[in-house]
UniProtKB/TrEMBL annotation:
Residues 4-116 form the VOC domain. This is VOC domain-containing protein. Transmembrane segments: none annotated. Pfam families: Glyoxalase (PF00903). It comes from the Bacteria. Gene3D superfamilies: 2,3-Dihydroxybiphenyl 1,2-Dioxygenase, domain 1.
């Protein structure tokens, strides 16, 4: 199934404050930063800071989105997981930064299969 963790995404309300914390307090290297998305290197693990959409409040439920790198194609992994009863939030979505298939674990934690752009 999964061959490893591709990245961990953390929702944030204030990108500048979050980047400063991870860079200045935790000492992580900032690879890129934008208003809606920033990437940090955590000893080879990419941590993505993703701007929270429309909440405006750090008190809202947050948490990491664990992004799994499939062993094979994302399509074959989705098919295999669906065969095991996994419910996906929709079809594989296409983005300039890659393709994702979102689902949850048995506890409601957000997971995604991720394929980088070709």
């Amino acid at each position: 199934m999964a061959s490893g963790v591709a990245s961990v995404w953390l929702p944030v309300d204030d990108m500048d404050r979050a980047v400063a914390f991870y860079r200045d307090v935790l000492g992580l290297e900032v690879k890129q930063t934008r208003a809606q998305w920033s990437e940090l290197d955590a000893n080879g693990l990419m941590i993505g800071l993703n701007a929270r959409e429309g909440t405006g409040s750090a008190s809202s439920n947050g948490g990491a989105v664990v992004t799994l790198q499939p062993d094979g194609s994302i399509e074959s992994e989705v098919e295999e997981l669906r065969g095991k009863g996994v419910q996906f939030a929709g079809d594989i979505s296409e983005h300039p930064w890659g393709r994702i298939a979102a689902f949850t674990d048995t506890e409601g934690n957000a997971l995604q299969l991720y394929a980088p752009p070709a």
